[in-house]
Fold this sequence. Notes:
By secondary structure, the chain is an all-alpha fold.
Amino acid sequence: xxxxxxxxxxxxxxxxxxxxxxxxxxxxxxxxxxxxxxxxxxxxxxxxxxxxxxxxxxxxxxxxxxxxxxxxxxxxxxxxxxxxxxxxxxxxxxxxxxxxxxxxxxxxxxxxxxxxxxxxxxxxxxxxxxxxxxxxxxxxxxxx
Length: 144
């Protein structure tokens, strides 16, 4: 973790990943707060280096789909964009969690419409559409 930024900045690196089970074992803890700290450090290092957001590590408890869902939702809220799977039964849960919600898609379309050709504008709510918001909207609409 201490070298994440330097690794992310190296020209041959295209994406970062975190071995969560390895880290938890090394530190002797699977406390979600500890993993969130590591996840955020890696996410910040990746984005600062211009890399895409990392994907969450595998969820090792194959039959625990409720736990997988909760942990994957937590990762999505933290800004991660996907998750690797260790078993095919996990794929539907992961796909569902990372699929954009209908309200997110509606928001993204409204942002693009408000931005028009100039790339800036105002939503009906009064919120200003700026380049950062436009980028987020495009990323949502580009998701599979």
